[in-house]
Structure of Phosphogluconate dehydratase:
Amino acid sequence: MKLHPTLAAVTGRIRERSAPGRSAYLKRLDAAAARDRGADRMGCANVAHAFAGIPPNDKFRVVAERAPNIGIVTAYNDMLSAHAPYEGFPAVLKDEARKLGATAQVAGGVPAMCDGVTQGTPGMELSLFSRDTIALGTAVALSHDVFDAALMLGICDKIVPGLLIGALHFGHLPTVFVPGGPMPSGLSNSEKAKVREKAAQGLVGRAELLEAESKAYHTLGTCTFYGTANSNQMLMEAMGLHVPGAAFINPQDGLREELTRESVRTALGILKSKRYAPIGHIVDERCIVNAMAALLATGGSTNHLIHWVAVARSAGITIDWDDFSALSAVVPLLARVYPNGEADVNAFQAAGGPGYVIRELLDAGLMHEDVLTVREGGLREYTRVPTADQGRLVWRDTGESGDDHVLRPAQQPFSATGGLKLLTGNLGRSVIKVSAVPEERHIVEAPARVFDGQEQLLAAFKAGELERDVVCVVRWQGPRANGMPELHKLTPPLAVLQGKGFRVALVTDGRMSGASGKVPAAIHVSPEAASGGPLAKVRDGDVVRLDAVAGTLQVLVDDAQWSARETVAMPEALRESNGHMIGRELFAGMRRNALTAEEGACTWL
């Protein structure tokens, strides 16, 4: 299928602007790949230290027989339901490596925090920067530099982007990402949302709310809504960094262990075939565009408009929100998964899952097929679904959609566009995810109510002060102000106001969760207020117009008056409180160094 001209144009534009950085990156990568293997290159004391803790047979293999050695970087902890299954993965991976004449070592662990636990608390202000901390941890793990390939064990919001950023700084290594899968379905996401809205109105108490939440989040695996964690898994498939079809097999499914073992076979397959497919070459401009297309086609998390900018930068590639917006105009929405529909990711998988989406996009010319992947068969392998046949892994064609309420073909999509809009105007640059917002809500014009944090908004809601048409401006929420926490806690009260018939919108330099939905929200406003951005000039009563049709975000104030208006400073008490307690002091350097949201909020550049 001929490549869609917009996809070709966006890819060409990215390649042109990225040429100097990408060339320098590949030069460093290829120089690292040309070195002798670690155990041959290092001094005897270094080698002895590196392998002192492994079984004698493994030590003999890797040193004397020069067997491949795989480094495992794991985000295991039993605090997160999604990461708890990883506890037993290293033993399985090592066992499979030994069967194939290789060795594997846990090179290191990285932190993994749960936004669901920290949502609306001070701990959430560490969340975004945990991504770069994970990248640093990945670099520390791989810095022992005795590995021929790597396996990355991580799933959730900041964990996969962090692992990917770290891995790309060791781009000479063949690297496979190893998922753990979603939890089986419990209380539906839509029913859970209804209980949350009732709680926001005081119609149910804490006991009823906790019961509903516990029925929704009830066992091992990722949360079942299509938020950032599950968007991560879709993107790993689209980039060709998984074993094909591994994303959404439940942890309890017997197929999960076989897919985990296949990740070892896949990594070693690259080495044994001498096929030059290190992660730094796989993740090129085409691969990044494929990820963007898959995100848009599935209505994925807005967090990736930050994370994948940072991921691309790690491979010497520069993308921006104009690229996302241009692709969104031509990539159709093929999936309806909560919060963009009623289905959860288990229903998405049953209907055809990532394989169906990738096939439809490839056949429509909306993904690059001529890309490297961790599999020799290329991206077409990712259009198939894994299954077991007499104890062996086999892949079958995805076939037609198993449920056209969940997945539709590219010729009959839910929407002709990807549902993401870039907003520009005198309030800066921001993005809005409209795929879950009713069309009659795509334009909101109303007086502003300005808040210095989400607690102020919640207090105003409880006091009945927002029972009107209103644009809630929540500022001082960007990377430099307080680490850019998600403001998903605001969704229930704003949804209640919208449900009462009021014209309501949110405008913020903070983030919304991958679970943000039906309330129009202009998010990631850049430059942020703490850097002197225009949100610091908005006053209560200013009329703000959010127009997702025209792609504008404007405060309707006379130009001369707006230009002359003072830009207020972040309240000192707020700045002081943002910097203390729950470990926030340790992240002061990251807050100072963070780039804008559109630049990936990177802290290492």
